């Protein structure tokens, strides 16, 4: 099995940066970050048993993994570092395997950047199914990446700990003046009421359009189940009261309202024998109104914060997408942005090619199944007659008599010059999962991304037009020159075969240029079938073509040339033959860039003069062609 080490490093680097960036606002200590590192090791190396030891003052201290129950002691730095010598990855010494909690471990990985003190050590149980660690160069690059991220995270945590010490002092001084914490507002309302009126039963009934989640025990306002006096208080904004004989209680409804709207009801229930005084009613009313103003301020604050965050997200996305990334890099980045912002369970990008919609590689697996195609087809049908984005709160209400797993759907078209070039879909199994604010934000993201994606596709098409011959589909001479020049610098061997169609002028004169063009196409197809991605095929000019294959031995090169000469008459109509000049090279006889082509041309000339329908290998006894 061939392992793509560079691609694996790119994936690891992407995950590490995601972990670091996402954890900056979520993780207060190293424990949670270590859990993320363990998940990375499991994902990329199938390692499920791993312990991280942080280096501190000549000691390696185990960091508690939030996902693992462990009991491991400190390890002295000097005794442990001596085992590594010049390699970052070594088997665990037998003495260490005797330590409690390390009996099953097999290897140690030292996280260290050059001459700096180590950041820590990963001790783990190796997976026999993964062979990436067999490559020393890969291990060294991986260690450098992981060490740098761990170092930055440790520094970030230290800075945050210092910051929290000062923030606590600030929070204590401003606790009762802050109205931005919805939980604090609601909890204070309940606490104050219960502290002042221990005999009262208090309930907070909030309207269901509140976008702030709260841990406080509240009740959602429901027009169908609430009492008439409660609904009246909510709609009028005035306090109402009601005696309920069958329950032997008295109900007081104080609207929680601000300057812009009513956000809920502070409902107080007392036994019939208890008389609420005017001052108590006034106190409850003032408290409800104060909490309404505080909730409104908090709501506006959070809306402003979210708006700023959304604008930053849009700006970041637009900036990144205009960095001349290729289309795959763009979609990968946009996919991460959508997942981070909207938390969908499934996501897909669809592009329109030749008036047909086709899903891209930037899609979750569900869209590669029949079940997923149902959602895509529904969105396609919508965009076939409308350019309006699609917001579905509950898909089951639209599609009947079918199993609908994903009920919340947002689909945004990619419109460039008033034409739909594609669309993006996000889905979740819960109904009403996506808010309308999320819908508007996704519209902005896709709108700002559409032109960048279209430009990237256009750049790719233009570059392909430059790099490819429009008739044969083979690479152009300029692309071949660049490819060969790079190969001569980097590869250990190679072959270059220059091909000329025998008597091609006669074909054009006899059958016409259209037939001649078809023969060029037929030969181009055969060249690509023989080469099969090992190298490149190019149109040299006129009726001349060429192939270049790096890292190939002389014997294989001769077989390739012989196969081409024999196969061309069988795949062309009318039948034609070819003559070819071959030059091969290795480390000891690497030619100059221009000499390679000149030698191949000389060998081709020799093949022509020797009767055609054959190939000749260049040797220095041949007279060079000028």
What does it look like?
The chain is elongated, with a radius of gyration of 36 Å. It is built from 16 helices and 21 strands. Strand 12 (346-353) and strand 13 (356-359) form a beta hairpin. The strands form four sheets. Strands 3-2-1-6-5-4 form a six-stranded antiparallel beta sheet. A five-stranded mixed beta sheet has the order 8-7-11-10-9, with helices on both faces. Helix 6 (182-196) runs antiparallel to helix 8. The chain starts with a helix and ends in a 9-residue tail after the last strand. The protein is α+β, with helices and mostly antiparallel strands and 626 residues long. Residues 168-177 have low confidence and may be disordered.
> What is the molecular shape?
elongated
Assess the beta-strand content as a share of residues: 15-25%
Helix content: 40-55%
Class by SSE composition: alpha+beta
Topology:
Blueprint lengths: L4 H19 L6 H16 L4 E7 L2 E4 L12 E2 H5 L7 E3 L2 H4 L9 E5 L8 E5 L11 H39 L7 H15 L4 E6 L12 E2 L7 H9 L3 E5 L4 E9 L4 E10 L6 H44 L5 H16 L3 E8 L2 E4 L10 H14 L6 E3 L15 E9 L2 E10 L7 H32 L9 H14 L3 E8 L2 H8 L1 H19 L4 E6 L2 E7 L3 H18 L6 E8 L7 H17 L5 E3 L9
Parallel strand pairs: 7-8, 20-21
Antiparallel strand pairs: 1-2, 1-6, 2-3, 4-5, 5-6, 7-11, 9-10, 10-11, 12-13, 12-16, 14-15, 15-16, 17-19, 17-20, 18-19
Helix pairs in contact: 1-2, 1-5, 6-8, 8-9, 8-11, 9-11, 13-14, 14-15
């Amino acid at each position: 099995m061939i392992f793509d080490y560079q691609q694996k490093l790119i994936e690891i680097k992407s995950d590490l940066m995601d972990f670091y960036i996402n954890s900056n606002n979520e993780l207060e200590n190293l424990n949670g970050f270590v859990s993320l590192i363990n998940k990375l090791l499991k994902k990329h190396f199938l390692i499920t048993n791993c312990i991280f030891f942080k280096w501190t003052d000549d000691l390696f201290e185990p960091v508690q993994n939030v996902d693992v129950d462990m009991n491991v002691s400190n390890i002295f730095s000097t005794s442990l570092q001596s085992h590594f010598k010049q390699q970052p990855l070594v088997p665990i010494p037998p003495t260490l395997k005797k330590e409690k909690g390390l009996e099953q471990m097999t290897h140690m990985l030292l996280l260290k950047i050059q001459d700096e003190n180590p950041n820590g050590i990963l001790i783990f149980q190796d997976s026999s199914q993964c062979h990436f660690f067999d490559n020393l160069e890969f291990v060294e690059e991986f260690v450098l990446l992981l060490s740098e991220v761990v170092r930055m995270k440790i520094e970030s945590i230290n800075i945050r700990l210092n910051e929290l010490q000062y923030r606590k002092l600030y929070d204590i001084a401003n606790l009762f003046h802050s109205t931005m914490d919805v939980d604090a507002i609601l909890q204070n309302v309940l606490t104050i009421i219960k502290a002042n009126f221990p005999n009262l039963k208090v309930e907070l009934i909030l309207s269901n359009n509140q976008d702030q989640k709260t841990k406080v025990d509240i009740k959602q306002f429901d027009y169908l189940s609430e009492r008439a006096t409660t609904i009246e208080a909510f709609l009028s904004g005035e306090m109402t009261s009601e005696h309920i004989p069958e329950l032997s209680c008295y109900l007081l409804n104080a609207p929680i309202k601000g300057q812009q709207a009513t956000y809920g009801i502070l409902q107080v229930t007392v036994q019939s024998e208890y008389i609420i005084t005017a001052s108590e009613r006034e106190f409850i009313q003032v408290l409800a109104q104060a909490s309404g103003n505080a909730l409104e301020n908090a709501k506006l604050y959070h809306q402003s914060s979210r708006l700023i965050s959304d604008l930053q997200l849009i700006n970041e996305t637009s900036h990144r997408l205009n960095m001349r990334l290729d289309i795959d890099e763009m979609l990968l980045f946009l996919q991460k942005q959508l997942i981070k912002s909207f938390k969908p369970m499934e996501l897909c990008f669809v592009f329109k090619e030749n008036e047909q919609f086709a899903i891209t590689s930037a899609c979750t697996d569900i869209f590669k199944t029949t079940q997923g195609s149902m959602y895509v087809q529904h969105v396609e049908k919508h965009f076939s007659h409308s350019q309006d984005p699609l917001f579905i709160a509950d898909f089951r209400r639209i599609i009947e008599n079918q199993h609908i797993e994903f009920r919340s759907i947002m689909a945004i078209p990619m419109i460039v010059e008033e034409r739909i070039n594609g669309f993006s879909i996000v889905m979740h199994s819960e109904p009403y999962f996506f808010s309308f604010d999320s819908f508007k934000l996704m519209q902005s993201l896709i709108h700002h991304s559409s032109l960048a994606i279209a430009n990237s596709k256009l750049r790719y098409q233009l570059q392909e037009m430059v790099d490819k011959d429009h008739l044969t589909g083979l690479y152009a001479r300029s692309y071949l020159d660049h490819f060969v020049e790079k190969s001569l610098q980097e590869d250990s061997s190679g072959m270059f075969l220059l091909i000329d169609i025998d008597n091609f002028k006669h074909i054009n004169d006899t059958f016409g240029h259209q037939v001649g063009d078809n023969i060029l196409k037929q030969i181009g197809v055969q060249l690509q079938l023989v080469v099969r991605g090992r190298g490149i095929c190019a149109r040299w000019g006129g009726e001349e073509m060429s192939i270049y294959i790096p890292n190939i031995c002389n014997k294989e090169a001769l077989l390739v040339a012989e196969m081409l000469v024999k196969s061309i008459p069988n795949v062309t109509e009318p039948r034609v033959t070819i003559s070819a000049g071959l030059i091969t090279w290795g480390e000891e006889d690497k030619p100059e860039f221009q000499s390679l082509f000149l030698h191949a041309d000389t060998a081709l000339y020799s093949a022509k003069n020797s009767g055609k329908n054959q190939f000749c290998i260049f040797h220095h006894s041949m007279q060079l062609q000028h």
